[in-house]
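Course assignment 3, question 2. Fill in each field.
Student: A.L.
Task: Predict the tertiary structure for the chain below.
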Amino acid sequence: MSIGKIKRLKRIFREDGRTVVIPMDHGVTGGPIAGLVDMQDTVTKIQKGGADAVVLHKGIAMNVNTHNLGLIVHLSASTKLGPDIHSKVRVCSVEEALRIGADAVSIHVNVGSEDEPEMLEKMGGIADECDVHGVPLLAMMYPRGPEIKNENAPDLVAHVARLGAELGADIIKTNYTGSVETFKDVVRGCPVPVIIAGGPKVETTKQVLEMVSDSIKAGGKGVSIGRNVFQHADPTAMTKALVAIVHEKASVKEALNILGES
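Answer field:
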């Protein structure tokens, strides 16, 4: 790994080898949804909670103060208004991301979708660009498509995680498989750090925190959770709760206490 990647990864991961990333790239897909209307306010709340990094599209990254947060610029996009929300296209280059201060870049690949071949081809090229410039690549790898019945199926998640690593990603973001034992298999089969997605907004905070705790027990290296943070009633406290589990070895009960919940 190049010295550039090593130095930039230190802005994303702490000395414990773990990270709390809050993705806020959802405005491209769904517009100014709840929690992402005032981006500066939300980014500041996340920063106060102690997050390590945020994922933003280039236009937002140019117009908000990300404070001391690591900046991951997202290169992929699609909208819910288009013919296929699962078909991600490239909307930013690695060089452009660097010009606006990125510490890393991210891409989104839906494995199993009709446009999977094109997305894999683009990923291969982006991985090469990242190596040239010494920029870490976060690959959001999901099993999604017409033949995918269960996006959390352990064999599928293990496959897409490994696929991302095989094609040059430095960090894999993917779905949690539902149990410590099955997620251990995902981590074992992937030679780069695996962090979990938060998924759709859930009914209870406890569910999110239990998922995070279990993923860490399985060897996961952190989280990349968006809606369950920025749409929480208190994004700062929710971020603190995630940080407590990921970095401070807090129990779910202790994390809930931070939120004043039980």
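Instructor remarks: Residues 110 and 142 are 5 Å apart (CA to CA). The radius of gyration is 17 Å.
Grade: pending
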